[in-house]
DNA sequence: TTAACGAACATTGCATGCAGTGTTTGTGCT
DNA sequence: AGCACAAACACTGCATGCAATGTTCGTTAA
């Protein structure tokens, strides 16, 4: 007997997934009793989960009025990208130092797959492969604090991506990723950071013009 | 009748303060019933508070064994400083753009006070004034996401500061701060970011040598 | 018809109950 | 004394109760 896992943890992951996939679009009320009934658990773990989602910016709480899935407004999205630019730059810098044959191989595999996906015009898989590329770099960076913060940003960005089209274009993304890869492979931390930041800041600029 | 504030929120702030001031040193057990009895509230809001502290890295939870105040080990501290370097750099960059007479006046006031405090050798006030300088820049940066993440980092760093002496020296800190101020005032975002990052990376280097 | 009102209903946030689990303490044995 | 073991105790995590508050919807008045 060792579940070793809280019910609240499972509820948290369920709700998080539903929010990120858009099954719970912005504005959806996160009613604790309703969710508890649906999942067949009591209100306590559901409450824990909703509070945790609130801490991560995936739920917006108001006193005595419960929580709703937030809309990520333009200013918030800009701020998210400002943080993301700084942190992705740092992961690239750190990953340059830790760059090895394993990372090289995996990144090249992701890039090849990305080429195929773009050629096929599959936007959904593009999102996944894009995320995989950045995740691989985060892992190589070996900085849990930075990685955790990027994941938190990623969540809110996923919400925003459904309402605003800030995609800079799939082909452009792969191009940027190849540049980042080459900078990492070159072993120059400054180049790695610069390439990663430019990748993000291009989106931030697009965002700022899209007032 | 308008408390408009959750009991859990008050408990959270109380516990957070006790952890950050060292009243609850690392290893302290955060027993929900004990805290509830002491504060004269029920276990529910205390539980909420402890879970929230866990999300911020101010409590370490183990399944069926409750939470304790964490020790920040060396690797964790390095990762915290890596994130901090990236984010302080970004705030300085953004603050450069938003630099105005109000910010200038307040920063100069803080720097003058810092000089006095250092001359008096008051380490406790040094900590406060140091934090005030960085907070002023965070505020000027107008990026809530970046600011929030820096505050989260700040909490864990405060825990670590009591066990490891990573202080680079009070006088050196003021010197760095003046350089940052001048870079901000110059209006060059690159210079602002570079100055802020160097301030942090100096500490990171100290840390890395202090294996 | 539409707007204002109020009663019925649902939800929130805090309090408390409880089974399972971990910890501590006291006891007996070597 | 030192150790094994068990019983007593305490805590965790989930379930549920409840008063206060918020929401909804039907009814009434203009």
Automatic annotation (TrEMBL), chains A, B:
Q: Establish whether keyword Transcription regulation is in the entry.
A: yes
- Any GO molecular function: DNA-binding transcription factor activity
Write down the superkingdom of origin.
Answer: Bacteria
- Name the Pfam families for this protein: FCD, GntR
Q: Does the keyword rRNA-binding apply?
A: no
Keyword line: DNA-binding, Transcription, Transcription regulation
Q: Which residues form the HTH gntR-type domain?
A: 5-72
SUPFAM superfamilies with a match to the protein in the record: GntR ligand-binding domain-like, Winged helix' DNA-binding domain
Record's protein name: DNA-binding GntR family transcriptional regulator
Please give the organism: Haloactinopolyspora alba
């Amino acid at each position: 007997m060792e579940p070793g896992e809280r019910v609240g943890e499972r509820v948290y992951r369920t709700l998080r997934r539903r929010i990120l996939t858009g099954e719970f679009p912005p504005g959806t009320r996160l009613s604790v009793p309703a969710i508890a009934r649906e999942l067949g658990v009591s209100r306590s773990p559901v409450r824990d989960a909703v509070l945790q989602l609130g801490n991560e910016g995936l739920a917006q709480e108001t006193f005595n009025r419960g929580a709703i899935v937030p809309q990520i407004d333009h200013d918030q999205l800009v701020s998210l990208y400002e943080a993301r630019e700084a942190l992705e730059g740092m992961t690239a810098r750190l990953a340059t130092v830790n760059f090895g044959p394993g990372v090289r191989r995996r990144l090249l595999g992701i890039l090849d797959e990305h080429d195929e996906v773009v050629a096929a015009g599959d936007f959904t898989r593009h999102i996944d492969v894009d995320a995989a590329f950045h995740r691989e770099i985060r892992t190589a960076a070996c900085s849990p604090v930075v990685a955790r913060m990027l994941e938190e940003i990623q969540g809110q960005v996923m919400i925003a991506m459904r309402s605003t089209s800030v995609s800079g274009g799939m082909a452009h993304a792969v191009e940027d990723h190849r540049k980042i890869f080459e900078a990492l492979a070159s072993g120059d931390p400054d180049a790695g950071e610069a390439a990663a930041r430019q990748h993000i800041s291009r989106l931030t600029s697009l965002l700022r013009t899209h007032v």
